[in-house]
What does this fold into?
Amino acid sequence: MDTDAARDAVTNERMSLCDLLEQLDDAEWATPSLCAGWTVKDVVAHLTTTTRTTALDMVTGMARARGDFHRMTDRRARKRSQTLTPAELIAQLRQSATSPRRMPGSGPLDPLVDLLVHGQDIARPLHRDRPLPEGPAVAALTYVAGNRFYDAPARLADLHLIATDVDWTSGRGQEIRGTAGDLLLVATGRPAGLAGLSGPGMDVLTARMHGLEPRPGQ
It folds into this structure.
């Protein structure tokens, strides 16, 4: 996926996520997400930071978090979640829908992965169906599978992942089969994806998942 296609996909995901968020009531906003320690509102607050974080913000935030990127991400999301209303967060996400800005140091596909994965973090605990579009799902899976930031290489080593709903495979070894959505959740450390997967490699993958939970912002 080239940069222009990635930007278009990011815009589409932001807009469609806003459409979903506008349907939620207060209890749903307070529901724990699949991202450990974050509510639905915390996740949305995090998604509003990606186009609003400058290099200076990153430097000062990292200093306050003693060099821990994930602690910094967690603090920023929680602060915005506590100070902004759901309506304000939706408005900010819509406002930034077409923005090409991204977190300093991140690549063109990182905002797309963020939206696809966090969209599932939000939708699944609320029992809302949020299908992944095929092209973006393939691009995100390919990117995440080899990316150490997400700890995916350690989780997926010696496993052969096969998507059952899109044309995508990765790795060699014992097979793991499932939808792109479930594979993406597992690749980024969400145990909720395990229930939709099958194959002889499941015992190995399940054991690894319990030792490699996602960190805030992943």
In short: Residues 3-126 form one domain.
